[in-house]
Design a protein that fits this description.
single chain, 12 helices, 7 strands
């Protein structure tokens, strides 16, 4: 069993436990309601046993939350998938998607990211994140659970203030101008980006529109240490862990990093975008 699979199964178990405790049921109490041995409840909650769709439906009914079955089954469907369709993932809700990414962030010491389209989630304000998640959810016909997704994304930002973790992020200048939200929300987001640029955990690079680049913009992606790449396309999210894929995305990041500016030069580019969107 792969480490990533077990991590995802443990995260599913934690969600099951959360639903049980929120309902006020003990392990034995839920087991009695579901007609199971208490050991089965414990194994599912601790990631020692893989649930079936029927198990998850029974659990959801047992805790008085039958509507949560679709979220739980969405999490289960993503356990082993390398190519995770957005439609299928969002059927389980935004929180499931964000929690899965959060579990990977918790395990990672150095994150290398590239974003050509929007300001990355780890730097987003709640209002900007809400706009992004809402627009993409509408695209895939799954608009529920946005607020839970925003809350999970905000929790992931706690790592910005933790010692022992480094965020090496590249953003294409064009992403600073994308009007996926209102001008006022974008202005606040750019203010936020300028503030995180000074954090000791953040190494922010901006790729200027006028930069000479050896390769063009492609998929947004994150490299988690040297063990996992999470890349996004319109229809799917790819979780890649082969040596070949890790080496390829590492070369892509290094190549793009050579075209980026940092420090005060990056700050000036962000400030210019801020002035353009909402002059002071």
């Amino acid at each position: 069993m792969s480490t990533d699979y077990q991590q995802a199964r443990t995260a599913l178990g934690a969600r099951l436990r959360e639903l049980r405790t929120e309902s006020g049921l003990t392990v034995r109490g839920l087991a009695a309601v579901c007609g199971w041995a208490p050991s089965k409840v414990s194994k599912l909650e601790n990631g020692k046993q893989t649930a079936t769709n029927t198990d998850l439906e029974t659990w959801a009914r047992g805790v008085g939350r039958p509507e949560s079955a679709s979220e739980l089954k969405g999490r289960l469907a993503g356990l082993e998938s390398t190519y995770r369709s957005w439609r299928r993932q969002l059927a389980g809700g935004h929180r499931a998607v964000q929690d899965a990414l959060g579990a990977q962030h918790e395990r990672t010491k150095v994150l290398r990211g590239v974003s050509a389209t929007v300001v990355p989630g780890v730097f987003q304000t709640p209002e900007y994140a809400r706009s992004v998640l809402t627009r993409y959810a509408e695209l895939h016909g799954a608009t529920r659970d946005v607020e839970a997704g925003v809350a999970s994304r905000m929790r992931r930002q706690e790592g910005l203030y933790s010692t022992g973790r480094t965020y090496r992020v590249l953003i294409w200048e064009s992403a600073l101008y994308v009007r996926i939200c209102s001008p006022s929300v974008l202005a606040d987001q750019l203010d936020r980006l300028m503030s995180v640029n000074g954090l000791s955990t953040v190494e922010l690079g901006i790729i200027p529109l006028t930069a000479e680049v050896r390769i063009a913009a492609g998929d947004d992606f994150w490299i988690h240490d040297d063990r996992l790449v999470v890349a996004e396309s319109w229809h799917t999210e790819m979780w890649l862990d082969s040596a070949e894929d890790l080496a390829l995305y590492g070369r892509i990041w290094d190549t793009l990093a050579s075209a980026a500016v940092r420090g005060r030069d990056a700050h000036r580019i962000i400030a210019r975008a801020r002035t353009a969107v909402a002059p002071s």
